[in-house]
Amino acid sequence: MDIITLIETIESRINSYWNFYTVVIFANAGWVFSQYGKLSVITAILLSFGLVLFFVANLSSQKSALECLSVAREELKVLQETCRYQRLVKHYSTETILYRYSGTFVLHITVDILLIVVVFMATE
Q1: CA 119 to chain centre
Q2: Sign (positive/negative) of CA torsion 15, 5, 69, 94?
Q3: pLDDT reported for residue 83
Q4: Do the beta carbons of residue 122 and residue 36 sit within 8 Å?
Q5: Angstrom distance (rounded) from CA 123 to CA 36
Q6: By C-alpha distance, which of 1, 5, 10, 2 is closest to 70?
Q7: 3-state secondary structure the chain
Q8: pLDDT tens per residue, the chain (124 residues)?
Q9: pLDDT computed for residue 112 by the predictor
């Protein structure tokens, strides 16, 4: 079933966005903590601006991928009645993480704000 492959591909893309986001968060947090008390205000402003751009791009990419995933699952539900692998189709057409987009948004924004606060706390 091509639609199941599509769902797996979209899930993989979402995981890649989270992996990239995690690396950026930890790399920046590590660097900021190593510079704690030494960052100039202009550096904090520039770093925060760059982080906000990254956060918006990452979150919008995740939103787009989650919307595609939702559509693919709806398409699979339509095919469920005509498919001989109904249990498999039911599994793939069901969202396994409740409130996935809301949770993604809240977690993303919370961590984003926390990192920017830390950046400004690290200034001279």
Answers
A1: 21
A2: negative
A3: 74
A4: yes
A5: 7
A6: 10
A7: CHHHHHHHHHHHHHHHHHHHHHHHHHHHHHHHHHCCCCECHHHHHHHHHHHHHHHHHHHHHHHHHHHHHHHHHHHHHHHHHHCCCHHHHHHHHCCCCCCHHHHHHHHHHHHHHHHHHHHHHCEC
A8: 588 899 899 999 999 999 999 999 999 999 999 999 999 999 999 999 999 999 999 999 999 999 999 898 888 888 777 777 776 767 677 766 768 889 999 999 999 999 999 999 999 8
A9: 97
81-116 burial, b if ≥16 CB within 10 A, otherwise e?
eeeeeeeebeebbeeeeeeeeeebeeebeeebeebb
Region for 99 from its dihedrals, namely left if φ exceeds 0, alpha if ψ lies in -120 to 50, beta otherwise = left
Q: Any idea which residue has 């925060």 for tokens? A: 48
Q: List the structure tokens of 24.
A: 């950026």
Write down the pTM of the prediction.
Answer: 0.84
Task: Count the neighbouring beta carbons within 10 Å of the beta carbon of residue 46.
Answer: 12
Rounded CA gap, 102 and 98, in Å?
A: 9
- Beta-ladder partners of 67: none
